């Protein structure tokens, strides 16, 4: 007996979990990061390495998703993951405060904190997406995925604005207090939001390994043997490299090349996020009101988003040479909109493809794709800054350095668009009757 599909109200409640998750993460990746570099005058590489480590731990996501496929109830893992994440978020602030007096002790605490953050976010986020993929009606998945991600972005914004107001006048003690308060509030919100949605007694009574006949390594190999799942994993990795490469260099670019003040570059960041939200809403509306197999198809919007992102990044690459004559603000808004279309459509496509292929592998697929996204995001952000520093040292030109990195990101988005087009073509092609069986045989080594 299949569980009742999620209502819109329940989907919004699940979105509140993402809001809570985003609220904790944004403090650790932005505020704690800034305090380490500015107030404590530590090398920027230190928080960069800690954030990269928390992304690396997302490699655990496929295992979390596999557990959901085996009939494991997802609610305890969402709540448990949020609890671990909340502890990690609070401990990260404590570690930062300790660094002021003992660098070694603070670093040791920070490594523990970011380990908890990575594991907690992976467990809660993957289990949440698995529940959404399994329980949302197919026609609602594109809009549902967009709603959940928009609410996560809202968590970023609300927490940044609210916590920023309480952090002044700044002190390390106040940082610990505010971070702990945010973590506790986020955990309570997540528990209230998710409780009762999944319902009792939905896990199968037959032991999972007896019923489905294979363990995690084989399940992972089975999903990787599915052509669409494998190609989509590669698409996510390439596109997220392009998407994240601009993350840490856009504001410095505007300040160095265009001479904008810190306040002005912060405003640009707000304009970009506004464009992201508008792009994601566009995809959600298209998926709701247009034919899903026509103009409303998230796969088609994914291609459009990648091409638009490539074009707007290309604009940034050449815009610096024109300096004051280039409409930078418009370029940034359009870049945000293009990124929002790409992100919303890719998420909706992910939700659609999660149910394709071998039965009861939705969670494993979501885990693989989530791991690919997180690892690419961590690598992309880090490599973007490294590339700019290296090119500036080699060429002596900030304009050439930033322009070259934006041009490479534009090229990556073009490659991602080509991969997305292949996914569309594969989806349109008739499926071979033995495709799933052959994939399983290949994964088991008997084909």
Structure commentary:
With 447 residues, the protein is mostly helical. It folds into 2 domains: 210 residues, Growth Hormone, Chain: A, CATH 1.20.1250; 234 residues, MFS general substrate transporter like domains (Growth Hormone, Chain: A), CATH 1.20.1250.20. Helices cover 80% and strands 0% of the residues. The C terminus is likely disordered.
What does the average pLDDT come to? 81
Helix- and strand-based class? mainly alpha
Based on the coordinates given, report the CATH architecture of the largest domain: Up-down Bundle
The helix tally amounts to 17
Shape: globular
CATH domain topology of the largest domain: Growth Hormone, Chain: A
User: Could you tell me the strand content as a percent range?
Assistant: under 5%
In short:
The chain is an all-alpha fold and 447 residues long. It is 80% helix and 0% strand.
Short key terms for the protein model shown above:
disordered C terminus, Growth Hormone, Chain: A, 2 domains, mainly alpha
Topology overview:
Blueprint: H1 8-39, H2 45-56, H3 61-69, H4 75-99, H5 103-135, H6 141-167, H7 172-194, H8 208-212, H9 216-224, H10 227-245, H11 250-258, H12 262-289, H13 298-322, H14 328-353, H15 362-395, H16 398-428, H17 435-444
């Amino acid at each position: 007996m299949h569980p009742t599909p999620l209502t819109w109200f329940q989907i919004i409640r699940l979105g509140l979990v993402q809001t809570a998750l985003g609220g904790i993460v944004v403090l650790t990746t932005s505020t704690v990061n800034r305090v380490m570099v500015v107030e404590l005058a530590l090398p920027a590489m230190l928080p960069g390495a800690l954030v990269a480590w928390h992304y690396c731990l997302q490699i655990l996501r496929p295992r979390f998703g596999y557990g959901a496929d085996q009939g494991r109830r997802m609610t305890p893992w969402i709540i448990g993951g949020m609890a671990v994440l909340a502890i990690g978020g609070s401990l990260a602030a404590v570690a930062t405060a300790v660094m002021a007096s003992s660098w070694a002790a603070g670093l040791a605490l920070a490594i523990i904190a970011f380990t908890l953050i990575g594991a907690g976010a992976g467990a809660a986020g993957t289990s949440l997406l698995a529940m959404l993929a399994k329980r949302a009606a197919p026609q609602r998945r594109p809009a549902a995925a967009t709603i959940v991600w928009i609410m996560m972005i809202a968590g970023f914004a609300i927490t940044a604005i609210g916590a920023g107001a309480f952090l002044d006048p700044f002190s390390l003690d106040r940082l610990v207090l505010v971070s702990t308060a945010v973590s506790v509030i986020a955990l309570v919100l997540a528990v209230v939001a998710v409780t009762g949605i999944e319902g009792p007694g939905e896990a199968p009574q037959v032991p999972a390994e007896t019923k489905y006949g294979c363990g995690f390594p084989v399940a992972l190999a089975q999903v990787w043997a599915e052509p669409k799942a494998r190609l989509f994993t590669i698409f996510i990795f390439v596109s997220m490299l392009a998407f994240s490469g601009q993350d840490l260099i856009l504001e410095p670019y505007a300040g160095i090349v265009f001479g904008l003040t810190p306040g002005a570059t912060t405003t640009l960041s707000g304009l970009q996020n506004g464009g992201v939200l508008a792009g994601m809403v566009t995809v959600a509306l298209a998926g709701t009101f247009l034919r899903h197999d026509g103009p409303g198809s998230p796969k088609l919007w994914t291609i459009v988003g990648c091409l638009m992102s490539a074009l707007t990044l290309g604009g940034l690459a050449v815009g610096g040479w024109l300096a004051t004559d280039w409409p930078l603000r418009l370029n940034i808004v359009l870049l945000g909109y293009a990124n929002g279309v790409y992100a919303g459509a890719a998420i909706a496509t992910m939700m659609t493809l999660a149910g394709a292929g071998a039965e009861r592998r939705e969670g494993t697929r979501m885990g693989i794709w989530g791991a690919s996204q997180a690892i690419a995001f961590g690598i992309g952000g880090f490599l973007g800054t490294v590339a700019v520093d290296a090119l500036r040292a080699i060429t002596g030109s900030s304009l050439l350095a930033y322009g070259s990195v934006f041009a490479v990101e534009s090229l990556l988005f073009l490659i991602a668009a080509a991969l997305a087009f292949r996914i569309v073509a594969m989806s349109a092609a008739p499926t071979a009757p033995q495709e799933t069986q052959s994939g399983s045989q290949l994964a088991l080594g008997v084909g």
